[in-house]
Amino acid sequence: MKRVILLGSTGSIGTQSLEVIRAQGYAVAGLAAHSNIDLLQRQIAAFHPAAVAVTDESAAVRLEARLAGTAGAPRVLKGAEGLRTLAAGQQADIVLNAVVGIAGLPATLAALEAGRDVALANKESLVTGGYLVTRAAEENGARLLPVDSEHSAIFQCLQDAYSAKSLKKILLTASGGPFFGRTKDQLADVTKADALRHPNWNMGAKITIDSATLMNKGLELIEAVWLFGLPPEKVQIVVQRQSIIHSMVQFSDNSVLAQLGVPDMRIPIQYALTWPLRGGAVAPELDFAHLGSITFDTADEATFRCLAACKKAIAKGGLAPCAANGANEEAVRLFLEDRIPFLKIGELVEGIVDREAYGGAYDITDVYECDRMARAYVLSHL
Questions:
Q1: What predicted TM-score, i.e. pTM, was given to this entire model?
Q2: Which residues, 6+ apart, have CB-to-CB distance to 321 below 8 Å?
């Protein structure tokens, strides 16, 4: 029986991951959440982990008090260090990291350094510390298994022994988000409610806003560079509005393979957990008879500046992607608090990328300092 540690268990990816884990009959060795201890407590009762981590320390104390005296209650780990301890110290076969944002990076590193395979739904781990993460995986004989639907699609298309050697280009698909086709003038007054209405996917607030700005696609481009070892100019963004083709790869002979399926995150989650095998159906099958058409378009980088900024960042290298991510996390927070307009997000992300050179080697301390600087830049440019 495979034992899974699930980080970010109360979020959208986390709750869907637990559905997959239950369907596969896997054991849950550990769970982690930020502050939603009501849902976490229900998950503890259902899956009986040996340990849990709660990064909000006051919430962790409250959960500990609730569980006191309960037979078989898990050990409660607190704060960011508790998250790292859970990722590295609990007996498990795989760690699924679904934490949102740069907060997931230390746990990814801790799991890899402990020799654990990581099913990665926290793209920010590779965006902010790609060099550190890939080095940790290589040095400790651990694998990174992608959970994002696009990267899972690419991974699935590269499963035979010769595909990676003849890979020419990645075609990374994007839904285009709720504002596809709109001009800058039409985006000037969009509201938080508008931006949170994604046409195809049901996701958390932060990633939904990132989809609306196309920042999410920029982050995925950076992630793809690290995961698959291609230079950024070999990753092409293709808008696929129906979210049926999840991504494609083009080989040296110009043949193209694609992975298709309904837009349901349980499919890539399950593949990351069951790889190299495939599990049973956890989502509806794709009905080609009723599909109608599949369309392709070009992403508008002139309007959606976050995507352009991410391309600049990965081309600069070093900590430029980290700066872009930090500025975006802070800007999205401000947008969700109704403190800045929608278009300001892209303006701030591009501004921080253009500000410095960012090249050269770095360590984890440099990552956090770059992130701090990027957030301070955003707050100083309101």
A1: 0.94
A2: 127, 128, 130, 222, 310, 313, 314
